[in-house]
Design brief:
The protein has helices at about 5-15, 20-25, 30-35, 50-65, 65-75, 100-125, 140-150, 170-175, 195-210, 220-225, 255-260, 260-280, 285-300, 320-330, 365-370, 390-405, 435-455, 465-480, 490-500; strands spanning about 35-40, 40-45, 130-135, 160-165, 185-190, 215-220, 235, 305-310, 350, 375-380, 425-430. With about 500 residues, the chain is α/β, with parallel strands linked by helices. 6-O-phosphono-alpha-D-glucopyranose (G6P) binds near residues 189, 194, 462 and 465. Catalyzes the reversible isomerization of glucose-6-phosphate to fructose-6-phosphate.
Length: about 500
C-alpha cells in the first residue's frame, strides 16, 4: 500500500492544531456518525483524532487496497499466507460464510471434528473425572484460557486448569491439590514438537501414572500416538488454521469441557455472525475495516508507538494477553510479502489490563505522560453479578476515563494540567455471552488481517519465534555441563548459573 504515510500526512498536519475536544465540538453529530453496531457489539470511534475529511482519506486508502476483496479472499480460502503457501480458514471452523469448494470442504472437516469433540465431552462427563489440565502454549493456550476464564461458571461439570510455561513451578502449582484419579489432561500442540508442551505433557503423564486419561489436539496425530495417547483420544487440527486463530477448532476442546458443547457452539455462532458482517457490510459500515483504518491512522499518521486495550470487565482480564499474541505475532513484521522492507511502521506494542485496576497503576502516564497511547476501552452493559452500585461505578469510570483522556483539563498549576487530546475507541457488548465474546474476538482477528493487508505483510506466519528456540536447544547441553556457549557473554552467564559465583 504505497504512499500510506503521504496519504495521511496532509490530514495529520491539517489537524495538528485542532485538539480532539475541538473536533468533537465542531461536529455535533460525531458521536452518532462515528459509531457502528453488529448485533451485541457496538463500537464508537468519536474520540479518535480524525475528522470526516481524514476518514474520507482513510476509506479511499481502503478502496485502493481492496480491503473488501481481501476479506473475500480470506474467507474463500485463498492462499493469504504466501510464505507458507497456505489459506487461513479459521472462519470455516465456525460457519459456512463462504461457498468456495475449499471453504466448504474445510467446513465439513470442522463439523466432523466438532461431532467427535461432543462425543469425547459426553464420555468424560460420564466418567469420574472432575478436573482437566490443558497443556499447551501460545495459540494452543491463550484462546482457550481467555474464553474459559471469561465464561466458566462455578457449577460447571469440569474445572479446567491451564499449564503453559516450561517453568516447573507452573506444573507444580497446577497439579497441587488435584487428584490424579479424577483428572484428565489434554495436550494441545499443532506441531506436537513444542518443547514446553512435551516436557509438561511428560510431567503430567508421569503424575497420572499413564496416558490412559490423556487426550491430544494436533495436526500430527502420529506424534501424539508415539507419545502414548491412543488414536481415539486424538483430535485433529489442520495447516489451514494458524495457531493464534485456532480456538474455534479442537483447540477449543478445553472450552467445550468447561462451558459445555452448546456454549462452545454459541461462541462459534457469534464469530460466524461477525464473519458475515465483515464479508457483506459496505466498507463505511464495516466494523473491522473501520477499526483497522483507525489503527493505521494512529500508527502511521500519529506515529503512536503502543496501543492499549482496556477491558472494563474482570471476566475479560486475559483479553490483553490474548490480543498481544494475535496482534504482535501477526503484525510484528518488517518485511513485506514481496520480500522488500516495509516502508512504514507496523505493529505497535499492544498492552493493557482490566479497569478499574489500571487506573491505579499506569493511567497517570496515559493522562500526563509524554507518549500519546491510543486505547481500546471495552465495556459490558449488563452485569451478571447483581452488585448494581459496583456496576454503575465501573461504567461511570469507563466513560469518565475516555472523556478525560480526550478533553483533558487546563490548570494554572502545570503539574495539575491534563493535555487531553488522547484518542480512544469505546467498544460495548450488551452482555458477556459466548456469542458476544466470539464476535469480539473475530472482530479483532479481521481487523488484524486488514492491517496486514494495508501494510502488505503476512499476518499468518511467525518465523521470528524460531531463532530463540534453536539457540535454547543448543544451550541445553552447556547448561548440563557439556560444552560451551558460542557467545562470550552467554558463556559468562552460564558460568554464573552453573557456579552461583
Ligand atoms: O501449537 P504448537 O505447535 O505447540 O505451537 C504453539 C505456539 O508456538 C509457536 O512458537 C508460536 O509462538 C505460536 O504461534 C504457536 O501457537
Amino acid at each position: 500500500m504505497g504512499g500510506l504515510r503521504e496519504a495521511l500526512d496532509a490530514h495529520v498536519r491539517r489537524l495538528a492544531g485542532t485538539p480532539l475536544s475541538a473536533l468533537i465540538a465542531a461536529d455535533p453529530e460525531r458521536a452518532q456518525a462515528f459509531a457502528l453496531r453488529c448485533g451485541p457489539l457496538y463500537v464508537n470511534f468519536a474520540r479518535q483524532r480524525y475528522d470526516r475529511a481524514a476518514l474520507d482519506a482513510l476509506f479511499a486508502i481502503a478502496e485502493r487496497a481492496d480491503l473488501a476483496g481481501a476479506l473475500r479472499r480470506l474467507l474463500e480460502g485463498d492462499i493469504v499466507n504466501p510464505t507458507e503457501a497456505r489459506p487461513a480458514l479459521h472462519s470455516a471452523l465456525r460457519g459456512a460464510v463462504a461457498q468456495s469448494a475449499f471453504a466448504l470442504a474445510a467446513r465439513a472437516q470442522a463439523v466432523s471434528v466438532q461431532l467427535r469433540m461432543r462425543e469425547l465431552v459426553q464420555a468424560l462427563a460420564a466418567s469420574p473425572v472432575t478436573d482437566i489440565v490443558s497443556i499447551g502454549i501460545g495459540g494452543s493456550d491463550l484462546g482457550p484460557r481467555l474464553v474459559v476464564d471469561a465464561l466458566a461458571q462455578p457449577q460447571a461439570r469440569f474445572r479446567v486448569h491451564f499449564l503453559s510455561n516450561v517453568d516447573g513451578h507452573a506444573a507444580q502449582r497446577v497439579l497441587a491439590g488435584l487428584d490424579p484419579a479424577r483428572t484428565a489432561a489434554v495436550m494441545i500442540s499443532k506441531t506436537f514438537t513444542t518443547q514446553e508442551t512435551l516436557l509438561n505433557g511428560g510431567i503430567v503423564r508421569d503424575w497420572l501414572g499413564d496416558a490412559e486419561r490423556m487426550y491430544a489436539v494436533t495436526a500430527y496425530p502420529q506424534r501424539a500416538e508415539a507419545f502414548g495417547i491412543a488414536p481415539e483420544r486424538v483430535l485433529p487440527m489442520w495447516d489451514w488454521v494458524g495457531g493464534r486463530y485456532s480456538l474455534w477448532s479442537a483447540v477449543g476442546f478445553p472450552i467445550a469441557l468447561a462451558l459445555g458443547m452448546e456454549r462452545f457452539e454459541a461462541l462459534l455462532e457469534g464469530a460466524a455472525a461477525l464473519d458475515a458482517h465483515a464479508l457483506q457490510a459496505p466498507l463505511r459500515e464495516n466494523l473491522p475495516v473501520w477499526h483497522a483504518l483507525t489503527a493505521v491512522w494512529n500508527r502511521n499518521g500519529l506515529q503512536a508507538a503502543t496501543q492499549a486495550v482496556l477491558p472494563y470487565d474482570e471476566r475479560l482480564r486475559l483479553l490483553p494477553a490474548y490480543l498481544q499474541q494475535l496482534v504482535m505475532e501477526s503484525l510484528g513484521k518488517s518485511v513485506r510479502i514481496d520480500g522488500a522492507s516495509v516502508a512504514v511502521n507496523t505493529a505497535p506494542v499492544w498492552w493493557g489490563g482490566a479497569g478499574t485496576d489500571t487506573q491505579h497503576s499506569f493511567f497517570q502516564a496515559l493522562h500526563q505522560g509524554t507518549q500519546v497511547v491510543p486505547a481500546d476501552f471495552i465495556g459490558v452493559r449488563q452485569a451478571a453479578h447483581g452488585f448494581e452500585a459496583n456496576h454503575a461505578a465501573l461504567l461511570a469510570n469507563l466513560l469518565a476515563q475516555t472523556e478525560a483522556l480526550a478533553n483533558g483539563q487546563d490548570s494554572e498549576d502545570p503539574h495539575r494540567r491534563y493535555p487531553g487530546n488522547r484518542p480512544s475507541t469505546l467498544l460495548l457488548l450488551d452482555a458477556l455471552t459466548p456469542q458476544a465474546l466470539g464476535m469480539l474476538i473475530a472482530f479483532y482477528e479481521h481487523s488484524v488481517y486488514l492491517q496486514a493487508v494495508l501494510w502488505q505483510i503476512n499476518a499468518f506466519d511467525q518465523f521470528g519465534v524460531e531463532l530463540g528456540k534453536q539457540l535454547a536447544s543448543r544451550l541445553l547441553p552447556a547448561l548440563q555441563g557439556q560444552g560451551q556457549a558460542d557467545d562470550p557473554v552467554t558463556q559468562a552467564l552460564l558460568e554464573v548459573l552453573r557456579t552461583g559465583e
